[in-house]
Amino acid sequence: MPITTEQSSHAGSPPALHQPIHAALQQHYETLRDVHLRELFAADPARFEHFSLQVGDIFLDYSKNRITDTTLQLLMQLAETADVAGWRERMFQGDTINNTEHRAVLHTALRNRSNTPVLVDGENVMPAVNAVIAQMSAFAERVRSGTWTGYTGKPIVDVVNVGIGGSDLGPHMVYQALKAYRHPRLNMHYVSNVDGAHIVEKLESLDPETTLFIVASKTFTTQETMTNAHHARHWFLQHAADDAHIAKHFVAVSTNREAVMGFGIDPENMFGFWDWVGGRYSLWSAIGLSVVLAVGAENFIALLDGAHAMDQHFRDAPLECNMPVILALLGVWYSNYFGAESQVILPYDHYLRSLPLYLQQADMESNGKSVDRDGNAVDYATGPIIWGTSGINGQHAFYQLIHQGTRLIPADFIISVTPPTDLHAQHDILMANFLAQTEALMRGRTLQETRDGGVTPPYAPKVFAGNHPSNALLLTALTPHTLGMLIALYEHKIFVQGIVWNLNSYDQWGVELGKQLAKCIQPELNAAEPVTTHDASTNGLINRYRQQRAQ
Ligand code: F6P
């Protein structure tokens, strides 16, 4: 029995992919689908200059995409049809574009370093944003200088961020990325998994006298985070014995003041943010506290500055030379015309190794939707599967499938020009591999080249079709500023795609169902009688677990 959605006919204005521009793109796709990138390069010696763009410290080469000028013109028309520029303005000015949660979407206000007023319900949010940055900076200064001490008077050495999803992935990724900027005494740790192994293993090596916990949760109700936070408090009190000491060792980052107080954290030690900051867009808010502690307020502000620079570029640059818009439309081109199902993110940078994980949430939780913002079921592909890992490691793991598998997998290659260490020769090896892979994916190897190249038969498995698209992103260096730009680039790419697909990219109702069911099932695991209320599989698994656990 198929599960049907409430709506059948289209309410609201038709999405761009239902408009004549879609047919024009489909027709254009038919003319380009069998054209090889080799031919496109041969036809235009200036293709690299033509299809590349520098914005601040980020250079984008998008010439190895299966596009021509006409493709881009048509894609730009698609963006215009979807009113990307209008929606972009609505987002920046604080309109309620998250229509199912009735919220503005203003992570850009958190890094609005120009400090121009941003109004939510008629009130300028910038004074409150700046006040939290000042509060975080002052607190970080005390911890970093050692004037904030634990209950026995020792300076803090370890900081544990207890959070999950957007309250973990963003700060964790940035902490890793900015290793070069870290305070020498302070170590950050990130605990997210409710599997007790995560927190138990972490606490084994920590000293309660010198450990600070940041309980990071927008809602302060997330089961995983609250369970771990309670365990951390229990562990701490086993050593410190007195509730009064909690104030020196637990701080909270949340929008929920009552719940923070209910947990026993002094509201003085709470760093607030607002419901117009989505969880997966929150690293710029107080959720970034662990980053501020690790790299200092100055570097955190440089991160915000970088994101703001990308915000300004996104807001002001014409669509055809707008980096997030170009990346977004290329993604749409592959998803909706070539039928690509995924997008791989390949940082050739040890310190950016968690970027794919971060972007998985940012992109898939935002655009993993099959109902549009008007409540209609969509009949076109939306958000792709985002995956990836450190590129050089991926080469020895899954690149085979990208090169010779049956699927088209657009790839983003990311590298810094400046090496993170003085091992310059090693950086050249990394760069050579980065370049070799994008070239090999693009060119492939013909049968003739295989024969001529001294390869031994059989030839067929050694021939590569090529024609695999990729973007190359060259960062001048991995600094807080460039990192801020890079993250904001992807955020805006996701935004633009959401607009083209007519989605609300800022809710996540799908995640809620699993949370509700888990809450129902949890007491059943300890019920007196066998469980019969679910389907046979779920009943069977619950009862088997109960039986085996009892043995
Ligand atoms: O996974 C669902 C989600 O709501 C994410 O959007 C969010 O980042 C995460 O849970 C954590 O939520 P919170 O910060 O409220 O604990």
From TrEMBL:
<dbReference type="GO" id="GO:0097367">
    <property type="term" value="F:carbohydrate derivative binding"/>
</dbReference>
<protein>
    <recommendedName>
        <fullName>Glucose-6-phosphate isomerase</fullName>
        <ecNumber>5.3.1.9</ecNumber>
    </recommendedName>
</protein>
<dbReference type="GO" id="GO:0005829">
    <property type="term" value="C:cytosol"/>
</dbReference>
<feature type="active site" description="Proton donor">
    <location>
        <position position="365"/>
    </location>
</feature>
<comment type="pathway">
    <text>Carbohydrate biosynthesis; gluconeogenesis.</text>
</comment>
<keyword id="KW-0413">Isomerase</keyword>
<keyword id="KW-0963">Cytoplasm</keyword>
<keyword id="KW-0324">Glycolysis</keyword>
<dbReference type="InterPro" id="IPR001672">
    <property type="entry name" value="G6P_Isomerase"/>
</dbReference>
<dbReference type="GO" id="GO:0006096">
    <property type="term" value="P:glycolytic process"/>
</dbReference>
<feature type="active site">
    <location>
        <position position="396"/>
    </location>
</feature>
<dbReference type="GO" id="GO:0006094">
    <property type="term" value="P:gluconeogenesis"/>
</dbReference>
<dbReference type="GO" id="GO:0051156">
    <property type="term" value="P:glucose 6-phosphate metabolic process"/>
</dbReference>
<dbReference type="GO" id="GO:0048029">
    <property type="term" value="F:monosaccharide binding"/>
</dbReference>
<comment type="pathway">
    <text>Carbohydrate degradation; glycolysis; D-glyceraldehyde 3-phosphate and glycerone phosphate from D-glucose: step 2/4.</text>
</comment>
<dbReference type="Pfam" id="PF00342">
    <property type="entry name" value="PGI"/>
</dbReference>
<comment type="function">
    <text>Catalyzes the reversible isomerization of glucose-6-phosphate to fructose-6-phosphate.</text>
</comment>
<feature type="active site">
    <location>
        <position position="515"/>
    </location>
</feature>
<dbReference type="InterPro" id="IPR035476">
    <property type="entry name" value="SIS_PGI_1"/>
</dbReference>
<dbReference type="InterPro" id="IPR046348">
    <property type="entry name" value="SIS_dom_sf"/>
</dbReference>
<dbReference type="GO" id="GO:0004347">
    <property type="term" value="F:glucose-6-phosphate isomerase activity"/>
</dbReference>
<dbReference type="InterPro" id="IPR023096">
    <property type="entry name" value="G6P_Isomerase_C"/>
</dbReference>
<comment type="similarity">
    <text>Belongs to the GPI family.</text>
</comment>
<dbReference type="InterPro" id="IPR018189">
    <property type="entry name" value="Phosphoglucose_isomerase_CS"/>
</dbReference>
<dbReference type="InterPro" id="IPR035482">
    <property type="entry name" value="SIS_PGI_2"/>
</dbReference>
<keyword id="KW-0312">Gluconeogenesis</keyword>
